[in-house]
C-alpha cells in the first residue's frame, strides 16, 4: 500500500494494487451562485472532505507524487486540530505480536504519520523527521553553506504520534480484534469494520467518517474496500503469543506432533479512558475507569480454547487526589441512591455481554477509605436488579442471583511467611463459579456429503461449549493485585478445560510460559494507566518472591509518584484528543456525491430487484430423560415421519434434545459434549439416509450448541449453504441462580438470503404449580440471551421456540386421564397452562402455537403408551411444545412420534417460510444505470478533479418530482434563495377559490381539509375612483366582531370557518388568478389597534351578507384590515334583491385609523321579545352604537337608526 499526495488542489490518495481511496478537502462554506442558497449553513463547523473509492486503472494519478519512503499498512482515520486543519493518520510501522490461529495475526503499531489534507505547511516537518540529517546543503568538501537554520516547529499532531507509536496499540487485518473468539462470526475472511465493538475500538472517532462512507458503498465496492485493508481498527492493551512445543503441550492426546499456541489478548476500554488519578470509578453511562477484557487462548491444530475475564475500577462515584503517599485521599462523591442508576447500567451491560457475573473484590479491610468503598459496593450488589425476581408469585431470591461477590483482602492474606503464594487460597471461593461459567471450545470437523451426485468434503469449526459467565476482579488501581489474581483464575480455567478433555496435568514449562504472558500483560497495562510496569510482576513471572523483585517494586513506586504528579495531565489531554473529547473538536464530514445518491436510489427501488422464495424448515424436540440408550436406535419415525413425506425435503433441520445427560449434582455444573456428538451423528445418518432415498442433497451440520442437558443442532442441505451467512450461537442459564445449566436455553441464529432466522430450544422450570417460575425463565432468556451487536431473539424476522417448556394441564388427574381416553383434546387444551398464560399475555407475547391434535406427551411409562402409573401418578401434559413468531411462517404439520425409550414423546413441526432474496444481477444492472446517470450529472471523479465546485453540498439533492424544488440540505434552504422569502406560484383550481384557512400549514401533513375552498363573491358594485395603484375592486360588506350564529343545514355545506389569524396581505393577479406572497425582507408593522366595538345581538334571522349585492365572477376585493372579518355569501339563487350601496373610498395612501362600522339592518323579529329593562324597570337602555362616519358612505341608505331597534347588547349568562 502506497500513499500519494497532490499539492494543487490538495488531495491525498491511499492506493493498493487494485484500488485507490482519494480524499480532498473542501471548503466548509460555498460561494454564492444562482443555484445555491445565499444563506449557507455550516454543519456545526465540521470540516468537509470529498471522498472517492475506485479502481486504480480508472484514476489519473499523474498529478500525484509518491512518498517512496512511506510503506503504509493502513489508515486509522481522520482527525481535526483546533485551527481546523484535517489530518489523515496512517500506520507506517508495525511488527507481528500474536498469532491466534493460522491466518489470524495481530500487529503491534510502532510508528504512525499524520498528513495534512488542508495545507502543505507541515510537509517539511514530515521531511525533516524522515531525514533528520539532510545533505542537500553540503558542498563538495562537506561544508554546510545553508547558513543558520531555524529550529524546527513541532508538528501539531506530535503528541498523538507519540501516543500511537508507543507500542500499546494493536490491530489485525485478518479478524475482528475488538471481540473475543466466542463472539466472532465464523467463516469471515475480511473484517466488517461496522460491526466492531466501539467500546474497545480506540480510533472510533477518527475512523467513523470512513465507516459511514463504507456503509454507503455498493456491496461489491464494500467488499473491495474490506479486502484492500485500507481501514484499520486499533485496540489498546496487550497481545502476545508464546509457542508451546509438543512435548510441553497439555493437549498431547489429540495433537499430531505439531506445536501449540498460547495467546493472551487484553483490550482496554476507551469509554472512560484516562490516567491513574484522572479517571476513577464510574460515569453516568455506567462506564468504569481502567476496564480491561483479557482473553486466554490455547489453540492446537484441531481445537481452540478461550477464556475471558475482566477488571475495572469499583463502579461507584469516587475520586482520589494525587500527591505524596499518605496524601492520596479517597472521596466518595455521590450518595448510594444517586449512584444506583450508573451502577445498574454498568452491570446490565456486563450481563448482556458475558452472562452471570462474579465479583472478586481485593480491597483492604483495614484501610478506612477502602473499607468505605467496599461497604457501599456490597450494598449495591445486594440490591441489584440482577438479584431480584422480575415479578411472579413466590419467586425465590436465591433462584435469580446473577451477580455475586467475594471479598478477599489480598494484603492481609499474603502478609504471612508464604507471601504472594498464599493468594492461591482464593481458589476455594471461586472454583464452583469457574465450573459453572465453563469456557469456549471449538473443534474442527470434517464431513463428507453428497452434493449434486458427487461426494464433497466440508471442513469447519464446530462450537462445542460456550462461556456463560465472567469474573470481574478489582483492587484500587486494578493493576498489581488484580493481575496476580487474574493469573490464578486463568490457570484454574485451563485446568478445568484439560480435566474435561481427559488430558494429563500440564508440565512446569507450560505454566512458566503462562506466567510470562501474564507478567508481560500486567506490565503493559500498568504502563498505560500508571506510567510504569506492574508491581509484583516478578512473582507472576517466576512464581517466587526475590530481593531483586522487591527493589524493582520500590523503584516503580517512585517513578509512579513523579509521573502521576507531573506528566498525567498532558497524557490525559492527548488521550482526549485521540477520542474526540476536546471542547470544540468536530469529526470530519465525508461526502461522496456519486455513491450517496446511488445508495439512496437503490433503497427506494428495492422492489425492482428483490423477490420472495419459499423454504421448508423442520424442527423437532425430544426430552431423552437422561437415557444413554438411544443413539443407536432408529429415529426415522421422528425425523422422517409419514406426515411430511408428501412435502418437499426440508432445507433446514433443527433438532433439539433435553436431558441429554443425567441431571445429577455433578453433571449440572458442567457440560459433557461427547453425548451430544453421539446423538448428532445418529441424527445426521438418519437424515442423509432419507435424503438419498428421496434423491436430495445430503445434510451438513451447520452449528451445534449445548447447555449441560439441553442441546441444539442445526443441519442444512449442502445446496443451500451459499444462501446462509452470519451464523451465531448463544446460551443462557436459568437454573440455580444462573449457575447451573440444568435449565436454560440454547439459540442459533442465521441469515438465509435477506431473512433473519432464530431457533431457540429451552428447558424451563419443572413442577405443576411453578408456571410463574416458567414465565420468569422465559423473560430471563428473552432479555438475557444476546448475539453479536447486542441482537436479541426478538430482533429477527422469524423466531421458532421449541423444547420442554414444562407447562402442565390444570385439572385433576382422573378427569385429565378420562378426557385423554375420550380423545377430548379441545377440553384439555382449554386448561393447558401455556395456552392460558399466552392468552393473558404473561409469557411468549406475540407468539402463536398451532393447536395440538395429538395426545399429551408427558409422562409415559418407559416402553409403553400408558401414562405414569407410579406413586406420583403425574397428570398428563403437553410439556414439549413449539411456538413461533413471524408473519412469514406457515406451519403445515404439528405432531408427535411413537418413540418409547423415554418418558416423553418427541414432537416435531414442519414449516413453510417465505424469505426475501435479492437478485444480485438485476441489482447490479440497476446500480450500473444509476452510476452512469449520476456520473453524467456530476462528473466521473469528484474527489480527484482539480476544480473547486461551488455546488458540492448540493450534489445528490435532486427534486423528488418535476416542478418541485430540490430537497433541502444542511447547507441549502431552497425557501431562502435570493435572500427573499419564497413566492407562491400555485394557481387556484378556478375562479372563486381561495386557500383554505383551516388547512394545516405543513402541506405534507395528512389532513381531511381540502387545499382550496369556494368563496362566493358579492354582487357587482360600482367601482370607486382609485389612484395610481390600479383598478379597484368592490369591497365586501363589513360587520363588527361578534360570535357567529349557528349555521342552518343549507348554509353548513357552503360556509367556511373563519381563519384563526388574519391572512397575510396578498397580491391578486386578475388575468391568471395567481396569488403571490408579498415580497418583503422584514416583518411589517401591525396596524394601529382600534377601539373595541360594542358587541350586539340582532333579532333578525337573516345574515348581513345575504342582503349585500352579488355578481358572479366579480374580482376579489382588496385585503381587509386585520380587525375586519370577511363573510362568505350564499349561492346567488338564494340571495335577496340587492340594495344600492355607496362605495366611496379614500385613496389607499391616506391611511386612517379604522372605526367600527355600523351594524347591519335588522332581521325578522324574534319570537320572544328582547328584555330591554331589568326586573325593577330602573335600568336604562344600553348606550346607542357609535355614530356613522359621514365620509365613509358605505351604509348611507337604508335607515340606519330605524334598523338598530332590534339589537340588544350581549350579556353573560
UniProtKB/TrEMBL annotation:
PROSITE patterns according to UniProt: SAC
Residue segments, region Disordered: 983-1213
Biased composition, class Low complexity, residue ranges: 1046-1056, 1097-1112
InterPro entries given in the database record: Endo/exonu/phosph_ase_sf, IP5, IPPc, SAC_dom
First-tier enzyme category under EC: hydrolase
An annotated Gene Ontology molecular function: phosphatidylinositol-4,5-bisphosphate 5-phosphatase activity
SMART domains linked to this entry: IPPc
Biased composition (Pro residues): 1154-1163, 1180-1189
Record family assignment: In the central section; belongs to the inositol 1,4,5-trisphosphate 5-phosphatase family.
Protein name (database record): phosphoinositide 5-phosphatase
Protein's organism: Friedmanniomyces simplex
Amino acid at each position: 500500500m502506497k500513499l500519494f499526495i497532490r499539492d494543487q488542489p490538495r488531495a491525498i490518495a491511499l492506493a493498493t494494487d487494485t484500488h485507490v481511496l482519494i480524499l480532498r478537502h473542501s471548503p466548509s462554506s460555498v460561494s454564492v451562485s444562482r443555484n445555491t442558497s445565499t444563506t449557507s449553513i455550516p454543519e456545526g463547523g465540521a470540516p468537509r472532505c470529498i471522498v472517492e473509492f475506485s479502481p486504480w486503472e480508472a484514476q489519473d494519478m499523474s498529478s500525484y507524487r509518491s512518498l517512496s519512503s512511506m510503506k503504509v499498512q493502513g489508515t486509522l482515520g481522520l482527525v481535526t486540530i483546533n485551527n481546523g486543519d484535517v489530518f489523515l493518520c496512517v500506520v507506517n510501522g508495525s511488527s507481528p505480536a500474536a498469532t491466534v490461529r493460522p491466518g489470524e495475526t495481530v500487529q503491534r503499531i510502532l510508528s504512525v504519520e499524520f498528513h495534512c489534507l488542508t495545507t502543505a505547511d507541515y510537509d517539511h516537518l514530515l521531511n525533516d523527521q524522515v531525514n533528520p540529517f539532510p545533505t542537500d546543503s553540503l558542498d563538495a568538501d562537506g561544508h554546510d553553506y545553508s547558513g543558520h537554520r531555524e529550529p524546527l516547529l513541532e508538528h501539531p499532531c506530535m503528541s498523538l504520534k507519540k501516543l500511537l507509536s508507543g507500542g500499546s496499540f494493536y490491530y489485525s487485518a485478518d479478524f475482528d480484534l475488538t471481540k473475543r473468539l466466542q463472539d466472532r462470526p465464523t467463516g469471515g475472511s475480511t473484517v466488517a469494520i461496522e460491526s466492531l465493538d466501539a467500546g474497545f475500538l480506540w480510533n472510533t472517532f477518527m475512523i467513523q467518517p470512513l465507516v459511514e462512507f463504507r456503509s454507503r458503498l455498493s456491496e461489491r465496492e464494500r467488499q473491495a474496500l474490506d479486502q484492500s485493508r485500507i481501514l484499520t481498527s486499533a485496540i489498546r492493551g496487550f497481545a502476545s503469543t508464546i509457542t508451546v512445543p509438543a512435548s510441553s503441550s497439555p493437549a498431547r492426546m489429540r495433537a499430531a506432533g505439531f506445536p501449540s499456541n498460547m495467546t493472551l489478548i487484553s483490550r482496554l476500554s476507551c469509554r472512560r479512558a484516562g490516567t491513574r488519578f484522572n479517571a476513577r470509578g464510574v460515569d453516568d453511562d455506567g462506564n468504569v475507569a481502567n476496564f480491561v477484557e483479557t482473553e486466554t487462548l490455547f489453540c492446537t491444530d484441531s481445537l481452540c480454547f478461550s477464556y475471558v475475564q475482566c477488571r475495572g475500577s469499583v463502579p461507584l462515584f469516587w475520586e482520589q487526589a494525587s500527591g505524596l503517599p499518605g496524601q492520596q485521599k479517597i472521596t466518595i462523591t455521590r450518595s448510594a441512591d444517586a449512584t444506583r442508576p450508573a451502577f445498574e447500567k454498568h452491570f446490565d451491560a456486563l450481563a448482556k455481554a458475558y452472562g452471570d457475573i462474579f465479583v472478586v473484590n481485593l480491597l483492604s479491610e483495614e484501610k478506612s477509605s477502602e473499607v468505605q468503598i467496599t461497604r457501599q459496593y456490597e450494598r449495591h450488589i445486594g440490591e441489584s436488579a440482577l438479584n431480584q425476581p422480575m415479578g411472579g408469585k413466590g419467586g425465590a431470591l436465591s433462584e435469580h442471583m446473577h451477580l455475586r461477590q467475594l471479598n478477599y483482602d489480598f494484603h492481609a492474606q499474603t502478609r504471612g511467611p508464604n507471601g504472594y503464594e498464599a493468594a492461591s487460597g482464593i481458589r476455594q471461593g471461586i472454583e464452583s463459579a469457574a465450573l459453572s461459567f465453563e469456557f469456549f471450545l471449538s473443534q474442527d470437523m470434517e464431513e463428507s456429503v453428497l452434493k449434486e451426485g458427487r461426494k464433497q468434503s466440508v471442513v469447519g469449526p464446530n462450537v462445542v461449549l460456550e462461556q456463560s459467565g465472567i469474573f470481574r476482579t478489582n483492587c484500587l488501581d486494578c493493576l498489581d493485585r488484580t493481575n496476580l489474581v487474574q493469573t490464578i483464575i486463568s490457570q484454574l480455567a485451563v485446568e478445568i478445560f484439560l480435566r474435561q478433555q481427559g488430558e494429563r496435568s500440564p508440565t512446569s514449562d507450560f505454566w512458566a510460559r503462562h506466567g510470562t504472558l501474564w507478567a508481560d500483560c500486567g506490565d503493559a497495562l500498568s504502563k498505560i494507566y500508571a506510567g510504569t510496569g506492574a508491581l509484583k510482576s516478578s512473582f507472576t513471572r517466576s512464581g517466587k518472591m526475590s530481593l531483586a523483585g522487591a527493589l524493582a517494586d520500590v523503584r516503580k513506586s517512585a517513578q509512579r509518584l513523579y509521573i502521576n504528579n507531573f506528566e498525567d495531565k498532558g497524557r490525559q489531554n492527548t488521550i482526549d484528543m485521540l477520542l474526540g473529547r476536546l471542547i470544540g473538536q468536530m469529526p470530519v464530514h465525508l461526502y461522496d456525491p456519486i455513491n450517496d445518491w446511488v445508495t439512496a436510489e437503490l433503497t427506494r427501488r428495492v422492489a425492482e430487484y428483490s423477490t420472495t422464495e419459499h423454504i421448508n424448515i423442520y424442527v423437532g424436540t425430544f426430552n431423552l430423560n437422561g437415557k444413554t440408550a438411544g443413539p443407536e436406535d432408529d429415529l426415522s419415525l421422528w425425523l422422517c415421519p409419514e406426515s411430511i413425506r408428501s412435502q418437499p425435503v426440508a432445507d433446514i433441520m433443527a433438532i433439539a434434545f433435553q436431558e441429554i445427560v443425567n441431571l445429577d449434582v455433578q453433571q449440572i455444573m458442567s457440560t459433557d459434549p461427547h453425548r451430544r456428538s453421539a446423538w448428532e451423528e445418529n441424527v445426521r445418518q438418519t437424515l442423509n439416509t432419507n435424503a438419498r432415498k428421496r434423491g436430495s442433497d445430503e445434510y451438513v451440520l451447520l452449528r451445534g450448541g449445548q447447555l449441560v442437558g439441553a442441546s441444539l443442532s442445526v443441519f442444512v442441505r449442502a445446496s443451500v449453504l451459499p444462501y446462509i451467512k452470519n451464523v451465531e450461537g448463544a446460551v443462557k442459564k436459568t437454573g440455580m441462580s444462573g449457575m447451573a445449566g440444568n435449565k436454560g436455553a440454547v439459540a442459533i441464529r442465521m441469515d438465509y438470503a435477506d431473512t433473519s432466522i432464530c431457533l431457540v430450544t429451552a428447558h424451563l422450570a419443572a413442577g405443576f404449580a411453578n408456571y410463574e417460575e416458567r414465565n420468569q425463565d422465559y423473560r430471563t432468556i428473552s432479555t438475557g440471551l444476546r448475539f453479536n451487536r447486542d441482537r436479541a431473539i426478538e430482533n429477527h424476522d422469524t423466531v421458532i421456540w421449541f423444547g420442554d417448556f414444562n407447562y402442565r394441564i390444570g385439572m385433576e388427574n382422573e378427569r385429565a386421564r378420562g378426557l385423554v381416553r375420550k380423545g377430548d383434546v379441545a377440553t384439555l387444551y382449554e386448561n393447558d397452562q401455556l395456552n392460558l398464560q399466552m392468552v393473558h399475555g404473561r409469557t411468549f407475547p406475540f407468539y402463536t402455537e398451532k393447536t395440538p391434535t395429538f395426545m399429551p406427551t408427558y409422562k409415559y411409562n418407559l416402553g409403553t403408551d400408558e401414562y405414569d402409573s407410579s406413586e406420583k401418578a403425574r397428570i398428563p401434559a403437553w410439556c414439549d411444545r413449539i411456538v413461533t413468531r413471524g408473519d412469514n411462517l406457515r406451519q403445515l404439520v404439528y405432531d408427535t412420534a411413537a418413540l418409547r425409550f423415554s418418558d416423553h414423546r418427541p414432537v416435531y413441526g414442519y414449516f413453510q417460510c417465505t424469505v426475501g432474496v435479492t437478485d444480485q444481477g438485476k441489482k447490479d444492472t440497476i446500480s450500473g444505470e444509476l452510476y452512469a446517470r449520476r456520473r453524467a450529472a456530476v462528473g466521473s471523479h469528484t474527489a480527484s478533479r482539480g476544480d473547486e465546485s461551488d455546488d458540492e453540498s448540493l450534489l445528490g439533492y435532486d427534486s423528488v418530482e418535476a416542478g418541485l424544488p430540490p430537497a433541502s440540505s444542511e447547507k441549502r434552504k431552497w425557501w431562502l434563495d435570493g435572500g427573499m422569502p419564497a413566492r407562491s406560484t400555485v394557481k387556484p383550481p378556478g375562479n372563486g377559490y381561495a386557500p383554505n384557512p383551516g388547512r394545516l400549514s405543513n402541506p405534507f401533513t395528512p389532513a381531511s381539509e381540502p387545499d382550496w375552498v369556494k368563496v362566493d363573491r358579492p354582487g357587482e358594485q360600482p367601482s370607486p375612483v382609485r389612484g395610481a395603484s390600479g383598478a379597484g375592486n368592490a369591497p365586501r360588506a363589513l360587520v363588527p366582531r361578534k360570535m357567529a350564529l349557528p349555521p342552518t343545514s343549507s348554509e353548513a355545506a357552503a360556509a367556511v370557518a373563519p381563519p384563526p389569524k388574519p391572512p397575510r396581505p396578498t397580491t391578486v393577479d386578475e388575468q391568471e388568478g395567481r396569488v403571490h406572497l408579498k415580497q418583503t425582507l422584514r416583518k411589517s408593522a401591525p396596524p394601529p389597534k382600534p377601539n373595541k366595538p360594542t358587541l350586539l345581538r340582532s333579532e333578525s334571522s337573516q345574515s348581513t351578507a345575504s342582503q349585500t349585492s352579488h355578481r358572479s365572477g366579480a374580482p376579489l376585493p382588496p385585503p381587509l384590515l386585520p380587525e375586519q372579518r370577511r363573510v362568505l355569501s350564499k349561492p346567488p339563487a338564494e340571495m335577496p334583491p340587492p340594495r344600492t350601496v355607496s362605495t366611496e373610498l379614500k385613496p389607499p395612501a391616506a391611511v386612517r385609523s379604522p372605526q367600527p362600522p355600523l351594524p347591519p339592518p335588522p332581521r325578522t323579529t324574534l319570537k320572544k321579545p328582547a328584555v330591554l329593562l331589568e326586573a325593577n324597570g330602573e335600568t336604562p337602555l344600553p348606550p346607542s352604537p357609535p355614530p356613522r362616519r359621514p365620509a365613509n358612505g358605505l351604509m348611507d341608505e337604508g335607515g340606519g337608526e330605524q334598523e338598530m331597534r332590534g339589537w340588544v347588547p350581549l350579556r353573560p349568562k
